[in-house]
Amino acid sequence: MSDPLYEQLRDRLGELWDIAKIGALAGWDQQTMMPPQGGPVRAMQMATMSKVVHEQLVSDELGRLLEELAPYEESLDYDSDEASLIRVTRRDRDKELRVPAGLREEQARAGAEGFQVWVEARRTSNFELFRPYLERNIELRRRYAECFEADEPYDALLDDFEPGMKTAEVRDVFARLKDGLVPLIAELSQQEIDDSMLHGNFPLEPQKDLERAILGRFGFRPGSWRIDPVEHPFATSFATSDVRMTTRYLLTEFSSIFASMHEGGHALYEHNISPALERTPLCRGASLALHESQSRMFENLVGRSIEFWRWGYPHAQQLFPEQFGGVTVEDFHRAINKVQPSLIRIEADEATYSLHIILRFELEQELLAGTVDVAALPQIWTERMDEYLGIDVPDDARGVLQDVHWSRGTLGYFPTYALGNVVSVQIWEKVREDVRDLESHLEQGELAPLTDWLRERLWRHGRKFTPQETLERVVGGGMDPEPYLRYLSTKLGALTA
Amino acid sequence: MSDPLYEQLRDRLGELWDIAKIGALAGWDQQTMMPPQGGPVRAMQMATMSKVVHEQLVSDELGRLLEELAPYEESLDYDSDEASLIRVTRRDRDKELRVPAGLREEQARAGAEGFQVWVEARRTSNFELFRPYLERNIELRRRYAECFEADEPYDALLDDFEPGMKTAEVRDVFARLKDGLVPLIAELSQQEIDDSMLHGNFPLEPQKDLERAILGRFGFRPGSWRIDPVEHPFATSFATSDVRMTTRYLLTEFSSIFASMHEGGHALYEHNISPALERTPLCRGASLALHESQSRMFENLVGRSIEFWRWGYPHAQQLFPEQFGGVTVEDFHRAINKVQPSLIRIEADEATYSLHIILRFELEQELLAGTVDVAALPQIWTERMDEYLGIDVPDDARGVLQDVHWSRGTLGYFPTYALGNVVSVQIWEKVREDVRDLESHLEQGELAPLTDWLRERLWRHGRKFTPQETLERVVGGGMDPEPYLRYLSTKLGALTA
């Protein structure tokens, strides 16, 4: 039935994707399992893996195959798996061809080395140790951006994570977001909310028990996932039936469960891609913002809702009686939603979170343009944290060194977090239209009506469609910050009502 | 200084070895960390990784480079790293060229699938579940052997693990071994040794504490190793500074520490290869028998010696007071060396161990020749275990399914275990000539004089020399079972003296 040339493409991309996934495994291992002294060689190994993927993608054989498949592609539905694989691969290859193999390899190596040094620099709050690695990473990104024709250099970086989106569009969404957030935060910061029960004594084993109980409701197929502790949490997958979450346990804060639910949202997306797309480059999320919309949905729209904790809180009380024994679910819910400008992005509340992102988005553009000097970065970071959030930065570990992204040379990624917030609520509103009794399901700890909806409308399609097409299919329009602002104002405004 | 063509070779082999090592990481992950449902896709990924390594090794570019480097090679010392890399790569490539890529890929896939099924088959003691996978693996090995010109098909399989050694030589060594062992075992089995303290209650955490204390004496550089629990222990490495041991904890037997010391010996070998050989195909052991000589040395010559336990036993007593509190180190030493024919190879004593191997060596030759039918294997296994060791096999899990090797299609590997025993004592006798006070060092838990000797004479050279050359350099001769038989008879004979 299928075209023999298409079968060739399928085989070739199967192998390409095998190598890409095992390269990703090398990265997972680096962060979760690898003895630290393995770092330097691992950096070279990961660079080689990237190079092999690159070589396979730009190979003449693949180019010829894609050309020869043009008539077959035209004979197919645009929405079919086959047409999508041909279309997306052609786009990937055209983009990849613009970047010399040597540059990609250098980026991979510099990224892996930068990561190793960052771990140590962050531990000792030593920005100077990290500075030359960051400089090198930025210089390499500049050279990378130059490989593309774009309205501005940042467009090229953004396109890797949010294909087709322009920096100018992000600026527009962020401006509307900032306009809504600044007065909202000013108002919400006046709230007197007691969150002392979230600080204290949270032993590891009960944390893991709660995590198991909650992730157990996410509907992962048994024997298909794991979760491990790391410095900076992330999720990845090596097959739809092998998804890996990570988290970070703090023994004095009730916070890891939100990181786990966040990564759980990412993992659900990759876990529920159609098996027909396994071992193809379509077997991942449509874009980072769409990916992040899922992690933020499970972290916040589910994971910070009063409904979900009506089911979950009795478990938490049983596991942490000293902390939660005398606290009502309503007070707990207020505490986990407290708006309070703070130092650390991943611990920020839902309202201030986007300001952390806007800071990074601005700095990335300036670093790339060279209008901000790397050596001056800690100083500028400190100044803007004060200006945007009224926060004192006590040291670089809790300032400019807090995030892993730049250590790997990843610029253009941060904006997708805030865009993910925006999209998460756009999708949530659609779910609520279709699943009328969503809240009462959440109160029973029943996530299946939600996950069934998401699987059918979003997850199973993987990367078949562009982010714009995907969003249009799911919510019937483009990115719009209004639902997110409306949600924040309604939910957070009610906390002290 | 160095030839630019040689630098090209070095770069090319660096990448080849990166891919091979990350392929090995995929195998480590499969056995230690992977959620079981990841198995089918992982099998394909591993097959692809093998294929890429194969393609790079047989590439025309590498062939040309090796040809062009012939004059440079001749200008160098035979012993130099450079000449060795060229020489060994040429040999590897010539061998690899004989095997079609498709066959290698099929072997890798069948091996990974076989492994998955074996785990389940062993758990449920269901040989029939595993049978078709074993049949396929053997058929693939037959086709593999046909790719080579050899005196007998088994030579081709053996050569993968013990390059240059012939099946006939193994038969000869094993015949001499069997002649010495049979009367020795008959005599030693008469000994009345109480080993009841080794069975009982061994909680996990104290086992890990003892393991840490003992591996802590092995001299691994900090941050360069880890050990994880698995079904069937093994050791591997992804860099000289990233070595991975595995072990299996039983809570009712004092046995895991011997598995850990065994894998520790393997790990020390790869950990101590010269850094100059990092990221080259020379960066592994010279052969499996030489590798195994190191694991058996640390498991048995160190790990079952009265001297080492004079240091280690007080720790063990403290950790397991219920089991060892009232037992002298002499009685403990007798117990851990008790000769008693038993079911499980990896739990066998030093004297009967080689008979387990000889059984497998015979069966592998017969399976390959087709003179033994796979369906009849459990029956034949049972008969021969009775004949050789006087042992009843209660089920296949503790019989023919006990070892992982055949599940991955690995035939020709088993003999290297017994050859490793033989070589371990040949080397040990040399160490004792040079390190006169070795015993008193062991009594202090001081392994450095031993490991320094081994690093200098054996480990650092990696795979620069053939196994025969390597053995000649270390012990001044070929394989000889006499020292091993002498050692067994002296040590074990003295236990009840």
What is the total domain count of chain A?
2
Largest interface: A-B, 40 and 40 residues
Major beta sheet, strand line-up of chain A:
1-3-2
As a whole number of angstroms, the C-alpha radius of gyration of chain A is: 22 Å
**Which class of secondary structure composition applies to the elements of chain A?**
mainly alpha
**Outline of chain A:** globular
Question: Explain this structure to me?
Answer:
Two copies of one chain form a homodimer. Chain A has a three-stranded mixed β-sheet with strand order 1-3-2, with helices on both faces. Chain A folds into two domains: 149 residues, no CATH class; 330 residues, Neurolysin, domain 3 (Orthogonal Bundle). Chain A has 497 residues and is mainly alpha-helical. Chain A is built from 22 helices and three strands. In chain A, α9 runs parallel beside α22 and α11 packs across α12. Chains A and B meet through α1 and α2 of A and α1 and α2 of B.
SSE order and pairing:
Two copies of one chain form a homodimer.
Chain A: H1 4-32, H2 39-58, H3 60-68, H4 70-74, H5 81-97, H6 101-123, H7 127-145, H8 153-161, H9 167-188, H10 204-215, E1 225-229, E2 235-239, E3 242-247, H11 256-271, H12 288-302, H13 306-319, H14 321-324, H15 329-336, H16 353-369, H17 377-389, H18 415-434, H19 438-443, H20 448-457, H21 467-475, H22 482-493
Parallel strand pairs in A: 1-3
Antiparallel strand pairs in A: 2-3
